[in-house]
Design brief:
The protein has 256 residues and is of the alpha+beta class. The protein has a single domain, classed as Creatinase/methionine aminopeptidase superfamily (Creatine Amidinohydrolase). It contains four helices and 13 strands.
Amino acid sequence: MTVLKTPAEIYSMNVGGQKIGRILQELLIMSEPGVRLLDLEEQAQKRIKEVGGLPSFSTVSDYKWATCLCINDVVVHGIPSAYQLKNGDVLTIDIGMIYEGLHTDTAWSKIVGDSQEKREEKQRFLNAGSNTLWKAIAVARPGNRIGNISDVIQREIEGAGYSVIKDLTGHGVGKKLHEEPMIPEFVRGDISRTPLLTAGMTLAIEVIYAAGRGTIEYINDDGWALASKDRSLTATFEHTIAIGEDKTDVLTKSDI
């Protein structure tokens, strides 16, 4: 069941969302060749504590980290490790925070360093995802449906020549990290039969996609990391939003 939020709850999510959005940007700036994924995780833990929050992801059973850090073909749930970032890596940082008892969730992908190898191709790939996220957010308004968000994601990503990850979804967020409704990366059936968007809904809209076919698999025995089966590049762009009567607010947007 979808959990609608009060104006006071949305205000708290906005304050917390801006804080975690700022932390994400700091981590992206920090992500240069030679930096260990564990360095990013340690900084995330430190900064979340400093701003008065708690890591959202540690509320997931058996997950003890504040971040998911995904390199190249790893789509989601990459566990922080001693891996050192390399020039040209495509890194996705996914992070969530509980602030005043409410969760927000955000993710962004970037090219590490200044490698010129396939940079134009990689940047085109990432631009497709970030542009799609903003277009998906634009249709998240009262009277539209979850299927309208999914439709934009699928049309834009496939239109750019890439594939959405059909096994993964965006989701409601707030009282818990993962709430109803789920937001598929593609249209499932009749859009008019998908959940109606109404004021008070808070959603984590995610664009999760691959340069190749879009099928995924577990790549090791850690039980978490999922990668593209064809080992093609992947990326994720995500913001938490709040749907209002007159406008939709992006809660995890940062100005830095």
